Amino acid sequence: MPQLMPKTLAIAALLALGACSSGVKLDDTANAGAGAGGTGADARAVTPVTAADPLNDPNSPLAKRSVYFDFDSYSVKSDYQGMLGAHAKYLSGNQGRKILIQGNTDERGTSEYNLALGQKRAEAVRRSLASMGVPDTQMEAVSLGKEKPKAAGHDEAAWAENRRADINY
What we know:
Organism: Cupriavidus lacunae
Distance between the termini: 76 Å
Function: Part of the Tol-Pal system, which plays a role in outer membrane invagination during cell division and is important for maintaining outer membrane integrity.
Membrane topology: Lipid-anchor
Strand order of the largest sheet: 1-4-2-3
Shape: extended
CATH superfamily of the domain at 54-168: OmpA-like domain
Subcellular location: Cell outer membrane
Keywords: Cell cycle, Cell division, Cell outer membrane, Lipoprotein, Membrane, Palmitate, Signal
Strand content: 5-15%
Number of helices: 4
């Protein structure tokens, strides 16, 4: 009986290894074009390249999506008309796209005051875009108040960075 145990273990190991092999034949023709300078791609499967979405281009004016405000203000500065014009043009040409405009404030002031000011900032940007032809159905304006600061810190530089409205596609 002791000699039967090693033979049984050897047979079990061979069966286990045999079960690991695959009876599926691999298709070597899929990689046939990959040698000798070929790419392996079927020319019939190639789709033409289209222009990249300008929203993803860091050099596009659409890459800028924040409008900054002065302390305790919700007036959109004339400096932002070009940037907002680019967004208005994009939205007019892509009527299926929608934006969420998020108004933000610095940490100074009560939560209630900052929520109201953030809403006024978001609405000011929405009105600017509407005056450029963007329909209300493509825009939503909300306030985040002081809850989502862009810059951490308790100085004028951080506060100035947090007084903004962000355009999110």
